[in-house]
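Morning run. Coffee first, then this:
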Amino acid sequence: MFSFLKKGLEKTLNTFTKSKPKDKKITKDILEELLLEADVPYEIAQEIIYYLPPRDVVDRADLARVMQTYFMYDNKSVEAKPFVMMILGVNGAGKTTTIAKLANLFKSSSKNVILGASDTFRAGAIEQLRQWANKLEVPIIASNQGHDPAAVAYDTISSAVARDMDYAIIDTAGRLQNQKNLASELEKISRISSKALSDAPHQKILILDGTQGSAGVAQAKAFNEIIKVDGVIITKLDGTAKGGALFGIARELELPILYIGVGESKDDLIKFNPKEFVDTICDAIFLE
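And here it is:
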């Protein structure tokens, strides 16, 4: 897991190793510069330093302890079969690909998965999800562009119940430029889902593009205001040196980071482990 995580965070970790002065102890001033270069928000970089013990040289164990406090938000546990996941996010964030990665992850654990193409706003989204379903050999419920997305969600969940599926993963539209329409659509999908299965969707997950760094926080807040989000998946971390933005995302949203995407392959999605993430960051900072 550590090698997989290090590979995915390579550009972020290189920010620490390349910027760190050679043969010097990590002082608070040096630490602040390193954190900011990795796109840790300024306020959080200041907080981290403030909560460290009052000495100039930073101890690795102290830093790890403080950093881990930013990821204390628990993933709510719900027992349901099928477990219905509603996937949110703007176009281009990697939403459809992440759905495929989730399906592959569950399938590799011998779980049955069905996909629902409820992003009926774009014909391309339906076709892309259908192609992934065919590639992964998982069933999909899809209609035509312009069809009622809530009806697709209802049919997906109903089919999942009838087939005794473990997971139903439902795609949704992501046109944030028209928040009023999107809010109405997502609310309807959520409401109709609960008619197909009590308490569905059980988890509403927001997909965020990791290459946007701290700028993704505003986008996440907008979605969280539209429909209460339960957790976040960060994509494309392998393509950015802004991995430090995860601190801001977790703190500002007060939501758990569930998974991180670290590559283009269907297998490049790993469950987020705060301790492993922080330890990997600290290894890069304190590496001699």
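Residues 115 and 140 are 5 Å apart (CA to CA). Good start to the day.
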